[in-house]
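**Tokenised fold:**
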Amino acid sequence: MLRLVVALALASAAAASAQPSSRDVSGIVVDARTGRPVAEATISMADARSPVQSDVRGRFRARLSLTSGAVVTAPGYVSVRLGAPSARPGAEVTRGGTLVVRLVPEPRLRAVSPASRSPWPLDDDGR
């Protein structure tokens, strides 16, 4: 459903512009669990020479291609693909036209006890 919303928003804006293959987009990248901004997230477009990064408030501006889409990545988060048919849910367009990208934190690995090689945390006595 979210893929459809993003694709329709990008497509409708492109139809009204002079260049139907891309659109200028302003957005914000946030942590899906906490809602806090994700600074220095990278927005990479397949047909762009250099990626765009979000600022300390998670905000960015970019020209996104309607045909190839973009990928949003940040250390410690699962990447999100935008604007392409194979895009995963993770973005929405607000009423004001801002693209909100919600990144999900990567699962954390549990510590392995050297004595048992168990994936469970160490007990109070160190075993």
In short: The beta strands are 22-31, 42-45, 52-53, 59-65, 70-73, 80-82, 91-93, 99-103. The CA atoms of residues 17 and 23 lie 8 Å apart.
